[in-house]
Amino acid sequence: MAALVVVVSGCATHSTSPPTATTSTPSHLQGVVTPRGVEIQFVSTTVGWLIQPDSGAILGTTDGGSTWSPSYSGTSRAYAIDFIDGDHGWALAADTLLRTTDGGLTPYR
Prior knowledge:
It is a single chain. This protein is mostly beta strands. The protein has one domain (20-100): Thrombin, subunit H (Beta Barrel), CATH 2.40.10. The chain has one helix and seven strands, in the order αβββββββ. It has one helix spanning 2-12, and strands at residues 39-42, 48-51, 58-61, 69-72, 78-83, 89-93, 97-100. Strands 1-2-3-4 form a four-stranded antiparallel β-sheet, with no helix packed on it. The chain has a three-stranded antiparallel β-sheet with strand order 5-6-7, with no helix packed on it. The protein is globular.
């Protein structure tokens, strides 16, 4: 987990003010309780990601959570995600730190 903190901190130091993701929740998801162990993050009212607790796969949405599409389902199980906007994010997997610069449209590196 320390690697994730170092990478995120490293990105923030290149800017005069660190980027922050909004914490707005789509209205139809307000009050929804996610099962224990589900990692979910929205950067706007429409764009967000979640990690499926059983598989470690990452799903993404662009319609506020009405539909979800696979974003990552590699061999390393994802445990945590952190996005600073709709394109740039990181995922901590079992044996690696993954990143995306296009919201997970292409394979994480």
